[in-house]
Amino acid sequence: MSEDLIVAMFNKMTAAGYDEYNSHFQPIVRNFLFLIRLVLQDLPTHARILCVGAGTGTEILELATVNPGWTFCAVEPSDSMLTGCRAKLTAAGVIDRCELIQGKLADVSATERFDAVLCLLVLHFIRSQDERVQMLEGMYARLLPNGYLINAEISHDMSAADFPLMMANWKAMHSLAGADEANLVNVENSFRKVLGVLSPSKTEEMLRNCGFADCLHFFQSLFIHAWVSRRHN
Ligand SMILES: C[S@@+](CC[C@H](N)C(=O)[O-])C[C@H]1O[C@@H](n2cnc3c(N)ncnc32)[C@H](O)[C@@H]1O
What local confidence, expressed as pLDDT, does residue 6 receive? Predict the structure, then answer.
């Protein structure tokens, strides 16, 4: 699927639809957000955070609420998701600390530096490895020395013996959330032909090759994995 089709898919889904579907996964989301807070806890009181593919702003809302001195830059290509993000951050009274940009990483100033960059559940949409590297390098370039990258993505070694069993559980999870059969039969096909699903070891290798250090694989729920790593210089 081309990048534009991905954005069109998120526009079609609508922010309200995205949040409603994700509400079925609250136990996973709460755990994940709690751990993100934990790994970022040594950031300064006035940290500045970049969120790439911010969606409806879930991660910003969480971090802004518990860190009243932090400011945020959200970049998101889907008009519909960004509109939902703006509404949510406005309702929560944190919009004054947020800059919202409709676009992609390249639309974020190349000279601004952040204490942390979050790229949650975006990279598996990028099938081209060259584009992934470009994105990782772009995020590295926008970090302050010692700044953190948190990246989360769908990841698995699809040739591994446990892949079918993991896929069965993944489908069961979506079924519990109300996904219909027609969507479920296509999931495996979309992992192989639509998304760019890499193994955790490949993702870690790419992080290292792009300059990131101290890479810690701190979260996994079925196919969703997350890492925190740092820019050192
Ligand atoms: C699954 S959502 C994740 C949203 C949010 N980060 C979260 O965890 O709830 C993926 C988001 O990435 C956005 N996206 C897709 N391609 C992108 C790209 N190349 N750069 C930045 N964002 C992108 C989509 O529009 C969508 O809002």
Answer: 87
Condensed to tens digits (0 to 9), the pLDDT of residues 81-90 reads 999 999 999 9
Protein residue with its CA nearest to atom 4 in ligand 1: 55
**What are the phi and psi torsion angles at 52 (to 5°)?**
-95, 125
Atom of ligand 1 nearest to the CA of 76: 22
Is 172 part of any domain?
no
Question: Which pLDDT score, from 0 to 100, does residue 91 have?
Answer: 98
Tell me how far apart the alpha carbons of residues 15 and 10 are, in angstroms, rounded to a whole number: 8
Query: Is 84's C-beta closer than 6 angstroms to any atom of ligand 1?
Result: no
How far is the C-alpha of 58 from the C-alpha of 18, rounded, in Å? 11
Residue 101 confidence (pLDDT): 98
Please, is 84 exposed, middle or buried when counting C-beta atoms within 10 Å of its C-beta (0-12, 13-18, 19+)? buried
**Is 134 among the domain residues?**
yes
The domain of 208 spans 3-162+197-230
pLDDT at 183: 87
Residues whose CB falls within 8 Å of the CB of residue 218, separated by 6 or more in sequence, listed in order: 35, 39, 226, 227, 228
185 within some domain = no
Whether 169 is covered by a domain: the verdict is no
Q: Is 147 in the pocket of ligand 1 (CB under 6 A)?
A: no
Residue entry with tokens 């979260």: 219
pLDDT at 28: 98
Q: Enter the DSSP assignment of 178.
A: T
Going by CA atoms, what residue is nearest to atom 11 of ligand 1? Answer: 53
Tell me what pLDDT residue 182 has: 86
pLDDT digits (tens, 9 = 90+) for 141-180: 999 999 999 999 999 999 999 999 999 999 999 999 999 8
